[in-house]
Amino acid sequence: MDNSIIGIGIALGVSFFILYTRKKKWMNEKKVWLICVGLLAFRIFGFLYSKSEFRNDKVMYFGFCVPIVYWIFDRLFKKISENIHKRDFILFLRYSDEINDGLGAKNPHVKDSDKLFSFGLLIIIVATLFIGIKIL
Prior knowledge:
- By secondary structure, this protein is an all-alpha fold.
- It has one domain.
- It has 6 helices and no strands.
- It has helices spanning 3-21, 29-49, 52-55, 58-63, 66-85, 112-135.
- The longest helix is centred in the last third of the chain and has 24 residues, at 112-135.
- It is elongated.
- It starts with a helix and ends with a helix.
């Protein structure tokens, strides 16, 4: 198995897990920071001290950086939303617990900025990964 698949899986899996569980009571900011910093530390030490045959597979190590990039933008968007609406933004993505995603459902409580922040985070997760793959 190609090691880059592990990095891509970690990048997408952890980032989307944090995205969809960010307002759960059991998922507090401290846990997310620990997860993100832990993955970043694993990436740094893994890249610096790995065997030479794994060093060439930079995509795997880059994948461990994506969750912290996502989390920084999530906190930034949260702060902007709190300044605008006096609340955290509503995740406007399918299967989110914060909206009604049924057929023909209306969500009058969702503002345009909520949609912008939601799709922005989605694009940031995927674009960060693709930029890393392209550069490395």
